[in-house]
Write a structure and sequence with these properties.
The complex is a heterodimer.
Chain A (H helix, E strand, L loop, with lengths): L11 E12 L2 E13 L4 E6 L5 H8 L7 E6 L2 E2 L5 H10 L1 E4 L11 H12 L2 H21 L15 H14 L4 E5 L7 H18 L2 E6 L2 H4 L4 E6 L2 E3 L12
Parallel strand pairs in A: 3-8, 3-9, 6-7, 7-8
Antiparallel strand pairs in A: 1-2, 1-4, 4-5, 9-10
Chain B lengths: L1 H12 L1 H6 L1 H31 L3 E5 L8 H12 L3 E18 L2 E12 L1 H7 L21 H22 L7 H14 L1 H4 L3 H11 L6 H6 L2 H11 L6 H6 L8 E5 L4 E5 L6 E5 L6 E7 L7 E12 L4 H4 L2 E5 H7 L14 E6 L5 H11 L5 E5 H4 L1 H39 L1 H9 L4 H32 L1 H12 L20 H28 L2 H6 L2
Parallel strand pairs in B: 3-9, 4-8
Antiparallel strand pairs in B: 1-10, 1-11, 2-3, 2-7, 2-10, 4-9, 5-6, 7-8
Classes of the chains: A alpha/beta, B alpha+beta.
Chain lengths: 248, 537
């Protein structure tokens, strides 16, 4: 089921994507032929019940996983069949990830966590040469997410909201084109969740950052420009309740 | 960049991993200590062997010796002259040394070596090992003033005893009178001395129960002097001998310290002390055989000039050095017509001791194998040195196994750490880290652990080696038992020698093992699927 098919050259597109996990000999299907497109500057939310395959879809977008069938296109270029090395590069340059459980590295302090995508991108020597510039950038972004007073703290010393803001700062430092957020508010109370959402919305509005957000909360999802609803591995067209045919 | 940063952070935050390298540290330290001690033992022994023996020794197969000394020397000089630093002719012969102590004669088999100290000094630093001779000086056969005084004292006393017995215990006032004949005899030896032997001979035989008898018998020097003066040619010492019975005999020897001293444990203090029964200035008896067919037994007395102490118990308890000329004379090795003096071996010092094997093969070519044997000092001590080498090789293998065991410890701990870090690995991959990058985090972590482990090991090992004797003393003090017994070991102290290459290879080997042990966990970590790693909380 395609949605915004009329849009020319979407920034990121999944075409007829299927994915199944293997548990011993049993094949557990997760996605059955999904078509999703995102335009530049769009804030898309993907909603669905637990197990509907929404996280898997996001992983496929972010090249953390490969589809069994179907393709992923980034600005018209197929990216899911690229070699490992190129996929690592794209993850580093194009995507920024935000996870439900923040996923900061516990050994590094906030500043180092924020800088980690740059450390991965550049060789030690290049990083050393540009470290002052990077540090300034990082401090600016940390300031933007409101954590200037916390730069030398370890993740274990931060609250959940602070950790998520740090994760957002880390996702932004690499100047990504697309932000992939997996339940960014899932582990936060409603107030803190709202703060995070406000931050994401402002990023989308001010910097024209494309955001794909996965959530199970309809209220949160409603703050996005557009919502795609997943149900048992298939797209549910908004407003209609279409029963999915579940293949064996 | 993230690799080294994370690697350092893991190193700082994961103390359990540091625990896993303690066995590596201990292994490295032990290997360094063992190798240094073993190496120190062989190095020290080689040094001492060289001091007493020489780099290369040419020996005649026959104990009769080789008469054409100069010819032999010339041939050696022509063949390997460029490599030779010094050369000395010696006579080496089996002998029996008899020393009197209390009422007993103690006899020991010895190797008697006739040397010329001046040329011997060019071959090895003999004076270094002589107890009463300064290290820089070239040793000679003259008694030191102290030894002379001691000798004078006991010969006078002996003469007095002889006379006393002869005169059927004289009253005490006679002592002063009895001193006079001794002095007289010194002035007119021809007149007085010949009388002494018969008196002496009867004296001890009849008065054998006397405690002091053996002393007298030993100090029967006046008896021997006339015999020597009359029976053999009178050359160098004759004048002195005639003047003073307290002057030394013509035969002079350096005796190994171990031959004339005995270790005993002091019951009060528990310390091991050495008890010495012969001093420079005393006389000893030497029995050997003459050259020629058939060899005849030959006895002679000799004055001890000095004791030598190489701290190598084997040499100290088997070697006696004698003045070469006298030994040749006693053994009948001087041709009466041509005045040709035979020798049985030539000791050669090389400019470069490593050339020994080459020199030996060259000399074997020019010297007929039926008459001469050419050996290095290592050949002579081969079995012992080989045993030390085998021992250290086995210990090295065993200790390296300890380090290998440490490697398995690292392997196990690393698997745990990769499991613990599954989520972080997923995060890093999501941020764009490559599999190789993840792998190199853990490989360099392994290398860093190896560096720390072997580095600490090297430091501990070197410190231990540096202070090994203090440590030994401390342990002795704590336990009250002697850890390092001089009576068992060759040397008075634990000798150590640190070979930098050995230290390098031990440390390098340990690091290689640490890296090898981290390869498997690192590969496992690199293969984690990012989604799987991130999914579980």
């Amino acid at each position: 089921m395609t949605e915004t098919i009329s849009m020319p050259q979407p920034q990121l597109a999944a075409v007829a994507v299927e994915k199944a996990y293997r548990k011993d000999k049993h094949k557990v299907p997760v996605l059955h032929g999904i078509d999703v497109e995102v335009n530049k500057g769009e804030f898309l939310s993907i909603v669905g019940q637990s197990g509907s395959g929404k996280s898997t879809l996001m992983h496929l977008f972010g090249l953390l996983d490969t589809p069994d069938v179907g393709e992923i296109y980034l600005e018209g270029q197929q990216i899911d069949d690229l070699p490992e090395h190129a996929r690592d590069q794209i993850r580093n340059h194009v995507f920024g990830f935000i996870f439900q459980f923040y996923h900061l590295l516990p050994e590094l302090n906030l500043l180092e966590n924020v800088l980690s995508p740059l450390m991965i991108r550049y060789s030690t020597w290049e990083y050393w040469k540009k470290r002052k510039q990077f540090k300034q950038d990082a401090l600016a972004i940390i300031d933007k997410v409101g954590l200037s007073h916390r730069i030398t703290h370890r993740p274990s010393e931060l609250s959940g909201g602070e950790m998520q803001r740090a994760a957002i700062a880390r996702a932004l430092i690499a100047k990504p084109q697309i932000l992939l957020a997996d339940e960014p508010t899932g582990n936060l109370d409603s107030n803190t969740g709202k703060e995070i959402m406000d931050l994401l919305i402002s990023l989308n509005e001010q910097e024209q950052l494309t955001i794909i957000m996965v959530t199970h909360d309809n209220l949160i999802a409603a703050q996005a420009h557009r919502t795609v609803r997943l149900r048992e591995g298939q797209i549910e067209v908004l407003g209609k309740s279409k029963s999915a045919s579940v293949p064996a | 960049m993230y690799k080294s940063l994370l690697c350092l952070r893991y190193l700082r935050t994961r103390y359990i991993a540091l625990a896993s390298i303690i066995s590596m540290t201990l292994g490295v330290a032990t290997m360094i200590v063992v190798n240094s001690v073993m190496d120190g033992f062989s190095t020290d022994m080689r040094d001492r062997l060289r001091g007493i023996l020489a780099d290369v020794i040419v020996e005649t197969n026959s104990l009769d010796g080789e008469p054409n000394t100069q010819d032999l020397k010339d041939r050696i000089q022509r063949a390997v002259g460029n490599d030779i630093e010094g050369m000395t002719a010696t006579v080496e012969i089996y002998a029996m040394l008899s020393v009197q102590y209390g009422s007993q004669w103690q006899s020991k088999p010895v190797t008697l070596i006739g040397i010329d100290p001046a040329t011997k000094a060019t071959v090895g630093p003999l004076s270094k090992y002589l107890v009463n001779t300064r290290e820089e000086s070239i040793p000679d056969w003259e008694l030191s003033p102290a030894a002379m005084a001691y000798r004078k004292e006991w010969t006078t006393r002996a003469q007095w005893m002889v006379d006393r017995w002869n005169h059927n215990p004289p009253p005490e006032e006679d002592v002063s009178q009895l001193e006079k004949p001794v002095k007289n005899s010194a002035e007119k030896p021809g007149a007085k001395e010949p009388l002494a032997p018969p008196k002496f001979d009867t004296g001890p035989a009849s008065d054998s129960p006397f405690d002091s008898k053996p002393q007298v018998a030993e100090k029967s020097e006046p008896l021997i002097n006339p015999f020597e003066n009359g029976g053999l040619n009178q050359k160098v010492f004759d004048k002195e001998e005639k003047r003073d019975p307290g002057s030394p005999l013509k035969g002079r020897v350096y005796i190994g310290y171990g031959l004339v001293s005995f270790p005993y444990e002091d019951h009060d203090t528990g310390e091991t002390k050495m008890f010495q029964i012969v001093k420079p200035g005393d006389d000893v008896k030497i029995s050997t055989v003459t050259a020629g067919r058939p060899p005849e037994p030959k006895h002679f007395n000799a004055t001890v000039v000095d004791l030598f102490k190489s701290e190598m118990s084997e040499h100290d308890s088997s070697l006696v050095f004698c003045n070469l000329e006298y030994l040749q004379e006693m053994r009948g090795m001087i041709d009466p017509e041509s005045d040709e003096k035979s020798i049985t071996s030539i000791q050669i010092k090389l400019k470069n001791p490593e050339d020994a094997a080459m020199v030996v093969s060259k000399l074997e070519e020019i010297l007929s194998a039926s008459k001469f044997r050419v050996r290095t000092w290592e050949d002579k001590q081969g079995p012992l040195l080989a045993a030390v080498e085998v021992e250290s090789a086995i210990l090295n293998v065993l200790l390296f196994l300890i380090i290998a065991v440490a490697g398995f410890g690292i392997l196990a701990i690393f698997f745990m750490i990769t499991l613990e870090k599954t989520r972080d690995i997923g995060i890093l991959k999501a941020l764009g880290a490559s599999s190789n990058g993840i792998m190199s985090i853990f490989l360099s972590y392994g290398l860093a652990l190896g560096l720390v482990g072997s580095g600490v090991g090297v430091v501990v090992g070197l410190l231990f080696v540096r202070y090994i004797n203090q440590i030994e003393k401390f342990i002795t003090f704590i336990t009250g038992r002697k850890v390092f017994d001089q009576r068992i070991y060759y040397f008075p102290e634990i000798a150590t020698h640190v070979e930098p290459m050995m230290v390098f290879w031990v440390a390098f080997g340990a690091m290689v093992i640490a890296v090898l042990a981290s390869i498997l966990p690192a590969r496992k970590a690199a293969r984690f699927h990012p989604v799987e790693s991130l999914r579980y909380e």
